[in-house]
Amino acid sequence: MDFLYTYETLKLEFPLIEPEEARFAIMGVPFDGTTSFKPGARFGPTLIRHATLNLESYIIDYDVDIAELPIADIGDVAVVAGDPRKTADRVRETVEELKRANPNVIPILLGGEHSQTLGAVEALKPASYVVFDAHLDLRESYEDNPYNHACVARRIHELGVREAMFGIRSGTREEVEYAEREGIAWVHARDYDFDAFVELVKPLPEPVYLSVDIDAFDLSLVPSTGTPEAGGLRFWEVVEAMEWLVENKRIAGFDIMEVAGSELGDVTALTAAKLLFHFIGAMGKEKP
Ligand SMILES: N=C(N)NCCCCNCCCN
Ligand SMILES: [Mn+2]
Ligand SMILES: [Mn+2]
């Protein structure tokens, strides 16, 4: 099917199907118009798709071959350079088109700045937002723009979506106070463990939107990202949390954001690609 705002890109290497028939629909959002520190998020979606070429489609952990699952790739959303709100509007409209064509499909965004998660959340209207991130992203505005990537969790909270954040190690005093005042739960990367995750996420209402800002991981795994921060989470810590969510909660959508870089085979994209395959594999295992 055709979408108003997407265009064709590099695809995964195994056969894909049309979005109308798919259980998962991958879409790239190559937006980096408000990147504050390290550039290259516009290449994130392409770098992640390219990095998947290195991976087996058979996921050894789950005895699932994701090449046998119904996956679509609808390409990349055409961005409005420098305008995160207009681009997120296109993301929202694209996800709405997708859900109209196939109400059961789970959109998977590859980004691209975290600002773009807002468009998907607006379209999907989840009850809860679970996010792995180094940053609180609770600013009222950043660099004169309320739709900057550093404000995305605040905009989502304002929609009435319940939030829980993990891997946090950066924010302003105002953001910390806002979280406290608004009852937004977050766990510092230093304090993170599986039990802390389950305790906070268990009571959350469904469906849940799961967002992974790639900078949540330890810097050694994700050197190419917009605002890198030392001291993050291990790969399997995030995978184990994701597995619990997939087993225990209805998932509305998933994204892997803030992947940047300028070289094929970048470590960051390899981390993101493996996480992507594990998400699809875990979903394929749990709910056939
Ligand atoms: N959500 C985010 N990614 N926030 C990070 C914003 C950039 C903070 N720079 C502060 C630099 C002060 N010298
Ligand atoms: Mn971040
Ligand atoms: Mn973020």
Automatic annotation (TrEMBL):
Binding site residues for Mn(2+): H114, D133, H135, D137, D213, D215
Cofactor binding notes: Binds 2 manganese ions per subunit.
Assigned protein family: Belongs to the arginase family. Agmatinase subfamily.
Name of the molecule in the record: Agmatinase
GO molecular function: agmatinase activity; metal ion binding
Keywords from the UniProt entry: Hydrolase, Manganese, Metal-binding
Annotated InterPro entries: Agmatinase-rel, Ureohydrolase, Ureohydrolase_dom_sf
Organism: Thermococcus radiotolerans
Biological process terms in GO annotation: putrescine biosynthetic process from arginine, via agmatine
